[in-house]
Amino acid sequence: MAGIIVIGSVARDEILRMAEPLRTGSHLNGTLCGYRLGGGGANTAIALAAAGHRVTLVAAVGQDAAGEALLAELVAAGVETEHVARVPRPTTRSLILVDPTGERTVVNVARCEEEEPPRRLLDLPADAIYVRSRRRELAPLLAARAATTLVVAHVPPVEPRCRPAQVLVASRSDLTPAQAADPLGLGNEVAGQGLCWMVVTDGAAGARAVSATQSLTAAAQLVQTVDTTGAGDAFAAGLVHGLVSHLPMSDALALGARFGTEATLWRTSALPAEAVRRILSQWEESGRSCAPRRNGC
Length: 297
Ligand SMILES: Nc1ncnc2c1ncn2[C@@H]1O[C@H](COP(=O)(O)OP(=O)(O)O)[C@@H](O)[C@H]1O
Ligand SMILES: [Mg+2]
Prior knowledge:
Elements lengths: L2 E6 L2 E8 L11 E9 L1 H11 L3 E9 L2 H12 L7 E4 L5 E6 L5 E7 L17 E5 L6 H8 L3 E6 L11 E5 L5 H5 L1 H9 L5 E5 L5 E4 L4 E4 L12 H14 L4 H15 L9 H13 L12
Parallel strand pairs: 1-4, 1-8, 2-6, 4-5, 8-9, 9-10, 10-11
Antiparallel strand pairs: 2-3, 6-7, 11-12, 12-13
């Protein structure tokens, strides 16, 4: 079990299932399917807690009923919420459009953040920190932590040196063709010195990790997706679990891809605990966890 800090959003997702593909300028049919807990920080934190880690979420929710309800769900999922700030703004909300193939489009309609970057990050004990936030002002805090702690950060943002980290993760769908063609170049620019791995996820095509000397790939399983929301967040949980368990990057990447694919099979934003436990017990049965190795950069 590791102590992991997750920095990222907690959101109230409203789900709209589309009867037909999205087409700009058209008149479409869909069904509103209610609300559920989501947000990149919450999704990854829940899956890591289900994997047996002590997970502290650093986030913000409003002082409203939605914030209250989301916090209660996080606590029930085993996530430590002591460092989730309550701020006088509406809780983060997203509209999630799920097309008939299960692919999602996210529309952020309210974003709840603390005014100042969370300096408490400097004092919290952790074996690893996962960052899923677009706040650029986190850079000095992450630089301080990355000197002694494993930092895995999602991009964007992509400004130079805005994400000091040993491992960066990006979704291909968020990158320009030029960035996708040279992920390590992008990673070195965004992380500055100290980057070991740049990981790029690519939906049904799986994921790859590149370092100065290696290029690894992990295929995704062929599945009938029902809702791809949170696939990247689940991937991050599998990857971070692998890294804090001292698996080599090839295995951590494969575990991330496995978590990500599983997330596409559930009509939830966060991967359910039962799914996480099943994947990890299958992983152990297949013997892939038996060779712990230091994850040298
Ligand atoms: N359609 C899919 N089929 C199988 N696996 C998928 C699919 N979409 C996502 N995944 C898995 O989830 C991971 C993350 O998904 P991706 O779509 O790249 O991230 P994001 O959710 O950030 O868009 C992928 O690397 C893959 O392992
Ligand atoms: Mg995707």
